[in-house]
């Protein structure tokens, strides 16, 4: 069988959704090796997948988009950090390839330098995206501000203007840095980030309709495989199975985004309500103030058993946490703080699977009202869960990647020729 090298950006929200695909490929007999966060290497190895840490200089480059004012500034902060990381992740990927000598690669869409290096490497390669990427489409709003679809000529005109003000502005600022990353690998420039992301032979996106907007023009190399919710095996606390009110699971980001305000609003707003409030704060904020009797704060617990007993999930808009809840048929309240989270919130609203609450209107009372409304939207959440299941998940992604390997079986990658 084949040897497969996977490469992630430094985020658990990118590693965890990839794990079901890697485990499926391993179960099919492939040798699978992943380069990822140093803190997660032992966990990955425990699942039977080879793993080594990425260059520590990559993890040292933080993303401060949570402090941005508006979507353009947030996108710019994100692009600046990702392009800065690219100077390190490009040689890091090639060093991994020299060591592992893979037949194919699966590379994180946020690892821009590694994407360039994979293209120059020349073998069978796929890109994976655990969130909806910023690919243009005539049938959907531009990525960034979280606009809802607006059909007809008015929507077309709106989207064209907004696209230039958001993605267009970011591209004008950062295309020179992307051009430099590509030149470092002996590659020519590309006109847009859209063209850059489309250069892969296969783009696996971990979402599906009806959560995702219908697309008519993304092309055959783009495959939506549904949500791939996954978390490391862990013991479920005994209190999860205790009888009582349904849970409200409140999740915050695994990378610090100043979203402790969401946790504070939740425990205060839902105090005395007929819910048991469970807040997970993996970024490690120690204190969110006094807790009412119906609330508890944990750094990490398995989400799945809590969601099985939950009425609502409250999320910061991270794609992984939100899709994990929706995959369990649990409606969401989404309070977006940055990155792709405005887009996630818009999709929850559009799918009728929950409530979008802007960060600027986050109050304990507003959050309590949003939870009450979301609790009536279980049908929408279950429709989304059915759509994820129908997309095929890890099995569909593995089928697509194995097909790609088969297409390239008569060629050789650069590392194999050297």
3D architecture notes:
With 418 residues, this protein is of the alpha/beta class. It has 16 helices and 13 strands. Helix 1 (12-27) packs across helix 15 (393-407) and helix 6 packs across helix 7 (167-183). The protein is globular, with a radius of gyration of 21 Å. The model is unreliable at 409-418 (pLDDT under 50).
Care to give the gist of this entry?
The protein has 418 residues and is of the alpha/beta class. It is 43% helix and 14% strand. The protein folds into 2 domains: 3-226 and 392-417, 3-Layer(aba) Sandwich (Rossmann fold), CATH 3.40.50.2000; 238-389, 3-Layer(aba) Sandwich (Rossmann fold), CATH 3.40.50.2000.
Map the helices and strands.
Elements: E1 3-7, H1 12-27, E2 31-36, H2 41-46, E3 50-53, H3 56-59, H4 71-100, E4 104-108, H5 112-121, E5 124-129, H6 152-165, H7 167-183, H8 193-197, E6 202-205, E7 222-224, E8 247-251, H9 260-269, E9 276-280, E10 295-298, H10 303-307, E11 310-315, H11 319-327, E12 332-334, H12 341-350, E13 354-356, H13 364-374, H14 378-390, H15 393-407, H16 414-417
Parallel strand pairs: 1-2, 1-4, 2-3, 4-5, 5-6, 6-7, 8-9, 8-11, 9-10, 11-12, 12-13
């Amino acid at each position: 069988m084949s040897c497969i090298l996977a490469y992630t950006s430094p985020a658990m929200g990118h590693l965890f959704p990839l794990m079901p695909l890697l485990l499926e490929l391993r179960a099919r007999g492939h040798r699978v090796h992943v380069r990822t966060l140093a803190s997660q290497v032992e966990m990955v190895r425990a699942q039977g997948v080879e793993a080594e840490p990425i260059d520590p200089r990559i993890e040292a480059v933080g993303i401060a988009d949570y402090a941005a004012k508006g979507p353009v500034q947030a996108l710019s902060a994100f692009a600046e950090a990702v392009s800065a990381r690219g100077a390190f992740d490009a040689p890091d990927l090639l060093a991994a390839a020299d060591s592992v000598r893979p037949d194919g690669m699966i590379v994180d869409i946020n690892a821009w330098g590694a994407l360039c290096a994979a293209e120059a490497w020349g073998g069978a390669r796929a890109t994976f995206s655990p969130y909806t990427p910023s690919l243009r489409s005539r049938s959907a709003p531009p990525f960034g501000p979280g606009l809802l679809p607006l059909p007809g000529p008015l929507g077309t005109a709106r989207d064209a203007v907004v696209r230039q003000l958001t993605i267009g502005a970011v591209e004008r600022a950062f295309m020179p840095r992307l051009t430099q990353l590509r030149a470092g690998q002996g590659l020519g420039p590309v006109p847009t980030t859209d063209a850059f992301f489309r250069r892969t032979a296969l783009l696996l996106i971990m979402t599906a309709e009806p959560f995702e907007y219908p697309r008519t023009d993304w092309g055959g190399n783009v495959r939506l495989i549904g949500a791939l919710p996954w978390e490391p095996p862990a013991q479920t606390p005994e209190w999860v199975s205790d009888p009582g009110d349904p849970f409200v699971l409140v999740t915050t980001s695994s990378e610090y985004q100043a979203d402790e305000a969401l946790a504070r609003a939740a425990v205060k707003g839902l105090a005395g309500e007929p819910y048991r409030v469970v807040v997970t704060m993996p970024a490690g904020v120690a204190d969110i103030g006094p807790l009412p009797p119906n609330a508890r704060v944990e750094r990490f617990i398995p989400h799945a058993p809590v969601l099985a007993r939950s009425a609502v999930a409250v999320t910061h808009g991270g794609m992984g946490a939100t899709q994990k809840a929706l995959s369990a048929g649990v409606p969401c309240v989404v309070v977006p703080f940055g990155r792709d989270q405005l887009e996630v919130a818009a999709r929850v609203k559009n799918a009728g699977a929950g409530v979008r609450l802007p960060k600027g209107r986050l109050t304990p009372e507003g959050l309590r009202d949003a939870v009450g409304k979301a609790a009536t939207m279980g049908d929408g959440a279950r429709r989304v869960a059915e759509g994820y299941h129908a997309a095929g998940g890890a099995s569909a992604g593995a089928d697509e990647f194995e097909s790609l390997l088969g297409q390239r079986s008569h060629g050789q990658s650069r590392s194999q020729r050297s």
